[in-house]
Amino acid sequence: MLALIGIVVLHITTIIMLLVATIDNAWWVSEKFSTDLWGRWEISNSVWHYTDLKNYPEEYLQTVQATSILACIFAILALFVFFGQLFTLPNNHRFTFTGILQAISCLCILIAVSIYTAEFHITDTEGKYGHSHVLAWISFVCTFILTLFYVLLRKKSK
């Protein structure tokens, strides 16, 4: 019972981190600007102004945006499926679908963060990766751990 509570807490924490990483504007930051997956905030005259991401390759940016959103959707869906499977399915089939959804979420996060790291800000001399980028990497590790837990719980129940 304690293991299930721990898994639920880790799952909810991971979902929150994923949502913050996807929504918050701190993927690439400096004192003059802050960039997220959707736009760039620049400060001038002590006022923040929103601008589009002009210098980003559009196909890579759309891939990062889409896979970040899909990671959130699959992680949330996996939590609901986990609760559904916990009470309805027999022991030998209990966490199969939840593990698959969690693995897809993990893969989506890995794709998004890897592309962002490899394709954006390679030649930028100003700025650094912000907390949203770090949260996305931490979310990847947490979803991977959750995927392993679901696989182990499935094998344990057999």
UniProtKB/TrEMBL annotation:
One of its GO terms (cellular component) is plasma membrane. Its main location: membrane. Keywords: Glycoprotein, Membrane, Transmembrane, Transmembrane helix. It is a multi-pass membrane protein. It is found in: Membrane. InterPro entries: PMP-22/EMP/MP20-like (IPR050579), PMP22/EMP/MP20/Claudin (IPR004031). It comes from the Eukaryota. The chain crosses the membrane at residues 7-28, 60-83, 95-115, 135-153. Belongs to the PMP-22/EMP/MP20 family. PANTHER family: EPITHELIAL MEMBRANE PROTEIN 1 (PTHR10671:SF85), EPITHELIAL MEMBRANE PROTEIN-RELATED (PTHR10671). This is Epithelial membrane protein 1.
